[in-house]
Amino acid sequence: MSEQLTSLKREVHSLKGSAASLGLADIEQLVHAIEDGLARCAPGHIPPPGLVECTLRSLSAIESALNRGDVGESPHVEELAQLLSALGKGGFEQVAEARPKVPAQFRRDGLQTLEKLETSLGRLCSPGLEDRPGAVWEAVGLAELLKAAANTVGASAVESLASNIRAGFARMEEAGVGASVAASDIAGALVQLRGALEVLTEEVAVEPAAPPAEPEVTARSASGGRRQTDMDRAGVVRVSVRTLDSLALQVEQLAAGRAQQLRRAEAHRELMEQTNHALLQLERSAQQLALSGGGGGALETLRAGVGQVRGVQKRLLQLSKDVHREGEQLALVAQVVRDDLRDLRMVPASQMLEPLKRTVRELAARLGKDVELVLAGGDVRIDRRIVDVLKDPLQHLVRNALDHGIEATAARVAAGKSPRGALSVRVEPRGTRLAVVVEDDGGGLSPENVRATAVRRGLLVEAEAAKLTDMQAARLVFEPGFSTREQVTETSGRGVGLDVVQSTATRLQGAVDISFEKGQGTRFTIDLPLILAGALGLLVRSGTAVVAIPSDSVERVLRLAPSDVGPVAGHVVADVDGEQLPFHALSLAIGMPRLPLAIESGKPQTAMVLALGGVRAVFAIDAVVGQQEIVVRSLGRHLQSVSHLAGAAVLDDGSVVPVLNAPELLRAAATPVVLRAATEVRRSHILVCDDALTTRFAMKSMLEIAGYSVVTAGDGEEALGILERTPCQLVVSDWQMPRLDGIGLTRRIRAHPKLSHIPVILCTSLDSPQERAAGLEAGADGYVIKREVQRGKLLDLVRQLLPSS
User: Fold this and answer.
1) What is the DSSP string of 32-99?
2) Which residues of 77-91 are buried (b: 16+ CB within 10 A; e: fewer)?
3) If pLDDT is split at 50, 70 and 90, which confidence band does 606 have?
4) To 5 degrees, how large is the angle CA 643–CA 649–CA 345?
5) N or C: more exposed end of the chain, with fewer CB within 10 A?
6) Helices and strands (H and E) in the chain: how many
7) For residues 148 and 191, is the Cβ–Cβ distance under 8 A?
8) In terms of Cα–Cα distance, which of 511, 490, 749, 730 is closest to 614?
9) Cβ–Cβ contacts within 10 Å for residue 363, how many?
10) Can you spell out the DSSP letters for 312-350?
């Protein structure tokens, strides 16, 4: 304890000196009072609790003052008099520390010389400077004059800085890396020089009527100069987070570009094989002509041409090998750079855990509760973006535990518990993901209280609330505006907090879960990825859509027999290796139209098992498309409410796919589902076929609003494939499309024995009588001009052709 107290006194004394040198009078007074209070503590004795509490309050006030200074406000300390009084320093008067006195002219000339040096540095850092040596030695001369003048008046700090600046300018005579390093050193020294000149005291008094305007010196600028110089000496470079984000994204794009290069290399190999096959045919033809005695001079020309192409082919093959080898080298370099950048982004979790100590200390004192905080996992390294974004949600969870979870001391004693409550916050790595766990030993969440609150606030009617399981009721606490407190206090009751936790977890491609035991406590678990950057994605097809899902959340892909899926206690489950897991159709889970599953017709069903944090579920899919590295991009604020989407990614073929949020899918898997009975009334399925993406989705949205289930296709060939595997009751098709147009599609439907009964509507911009006649002659049941779609003509025609819908 004696060593710690001595160390603390030393730090406080250094802080007082820094505040004085920066002209922060309020902070200097307060730190001086803290120093006096610590000085009254005898060695080996523990400081009294009152002094500790006052010191902590004072440090919080100093931190707030510095934060105000950082945003350009006055860094004054609020309630300074009360803090000084509490520290035993009422009526403390600041004793000005002795500062070197210099002639007024030296100070003014020094500031003018400083401005000239700053201008010289700017010129030397500009490209295309003609007389570089002249500019360098002009700056060297200015620094030399300032050094001599400082030596004359005894301003040693200014003299030392001027000497360093002179040496720095001398190193800038030749442009290059050395000049850049020197410029960085000079910039830091100039900042320190301005601070050194500002703190000088003038010997000549200034008349009160015309006080000189002192240049502003902020804590940020002066301390920033010292930090810059210290980092230069230690070989450390400061990089903005925005620059690091941009660089990391570009490296991920480089890796994705490598995947595209491999795809093109495969296409090039196929072309080489086709070329080789064509050359073999030409050589055989030439041999046949030679044996038959025909061809004459043309035969020789053909042989010469084939020989030339063979030579070109060999060179292309060698070039292809060289490109492949160099590509592998670049891929290796890109991987090393990616790993290094990811390591730069990783910071210890203690950066978000340590601030919780102050929150618990202050809030527990305000609530009159005795709470012990235990932090674990502070050395776990995670993505800095996660640390920055998760600080506020962690504060909400801790405040929630203190206010709602841990009981008052009297209630704990009456329940046979320890008077001191226990609150733990720990970070647990789980493979490529991590869990942030906030757990208390309080009374535990009450599902009955949550249900009653939901009914009282109008979120649910009483009958609906009664049907909720305890876990479903517990998750209501994450709803916006939900609070079990009837009165608003300084700590809670406003209905904000836990909804922030869930929305933040979703934004970070994660999820939050809750568990509780009555009388024993509550645990919140936030499941997150370790890194928010490139990831390996599994591409799957569900219906007509291809989506990506992070591979680290996919446990396995399997085929389920119809006998493996069935209802158990009203829930649909799948038997996977003897374990019954919740079963869902992926199309329904992500808000797509409900399409028939293979098991409903007695066929094997492709499915994937998602698993995160001990939670597992099975999702039915149509097929696995592939696997590749993806860079997840944000979808913007307009799609933030779509919880099952983590973002989007561009594949190596240029197509864009949505990236699913696996934790959110698993959370939604708790909702019971039932297999569709054969007698269930189904919504009519309509196939919309149009090569224009905007038109296709405009018609899809309009028909879905009208109550129809819609699938889409980009041309006639794709539409035929969908019709053969998905029952549809009507087709709406454009006329002009690649591969197979609307007329061709209509004729193929009419000629198909299983599809000929499906009505077809041609929706096109072609409106001449001849074109209408051609469409109807091909077998179309209706013809609509696109400009009439928004007037309701398409919906009217659909209702006529589907009267039962």
Assistant:
1) HHHHHHHHTSPTTSPPPHHHHHHHHHHHHHHHHHHHHHHTTS--PPTTHHHHHHHTT-TT----PPP-
2) beebeebbebbebee
3) very high
4) 85
5) N
6) 26, 25
7) no
8) 511
9) 19
10) HHHHHHHHHHHHHHHHHHHHHHHHHHHHHHHHHHEEETH
189 Cβ contact list (under 8 Å, min separation 6): 161, 164, 165, 168, 225, 229
Residues 648-654, mean pLDDT to the nearest whole number: 76
The Cβ of residue 40 has, within 10 Å, a number of other Cβ atoms equal to 10
Determine the 3-state secondary structure of 21 from DSSP.
helix
pLDDT value, residue 344: 77
Question: Is the predicted pLDDT of residue 305 greater than 80, yes or no?
Answer: yes
Phi, psi of 436 (to 5 degrees): -110, 115
Quote the DSSP letter at residue 654.
Answer: S
In this prediction, residue 17 carries a pLDDT of 65
Query: pLDDT grade, residue 481 (50/70/90)?
Result: low
- 583 to 564, 609, 610, 611, 671: CA distances (angstroms): 10, 9, 11, 13, 10
- What are the helix (H) ranges across 125-176? 132-153, 156-170
Q: What is the pLDDT of residues 187-212, one digit of tens each?
A: 777 877 887 787 776 554 433 434 43
Residue 91 is predicted with a pLDDT of 32
Give, as one character, the DSSP assignment of residue 633.
B
Q: Which two tokens stand for residue 241?
A: 């987070």
**Closest of 56, 1, 6 to residue 34, by C-alpha:** 56
Q: Which helix (DSSP H) or strand (DSSP E) does residue 521 occupy?
A: strand 521-529
* Amino acid at residue number 745: L
DSSP 569: T
Answer with the residue of higher pLDDT: 68 or 225: 68
Give the DSSP per-residue string, 242-300: HHHHHHHHHHHHHHHHHHHHHHHHHHHHHHHHHHHHHHHHHHHHHHHHHHHT--HHHHH
Residue 287's pLDDT band, with cuts at 50, 70 and 90, is confident
CB 186 within 8 A of CB 165: yes
Who wins on pLDDT, 565 or 681?
565
Contact partners, residue 769, CB within 8 Å, separation at least 6: none
CB 783 within 8 A of CB 771: no
Residue predicted with more confidence, 200 or 743: 743
- Choose the most confident range, by mean pLDDT, from 171-180, 306-315, 517-526: 517-526
Sign of the alpha-carbon dihedral angle for 606, 611, 616, 617? negative
Residue type, 76: H
Q: Which two tokens stand for residue 416?
A: 């046979």
CB-based burial label for 27 (10 Å; 0-12, 13-18, 19+): buried
Single-letter amino acid code for the residue at 258: R
Helix (H) or strand (E) holding 112: helix 104-124
Contacts with 801 (C-beta within 8 Å, 6 or more apart), sequence order? 730, 759, 761, 781, 782
- Asked if 609 contacts 555 with a C-beta cutoff of 8 angstroms, the reply is yes
All residues at 6 or more sequence positions from 713 whose CB lies less than 8 Å from its CB, including other chains: 544, 687, 688, 689, 719, 721, 722
Please say whether the beta carbons of 646 and 532 come within 8 A. Answer: no
Which pTM does this prediction carry? 0.50
Question: How confident is residue 182, by pLDDT bands cut at 50, 70 and 90?
Answer: confident
Residue 228: CB atoms within 10 Å:
19
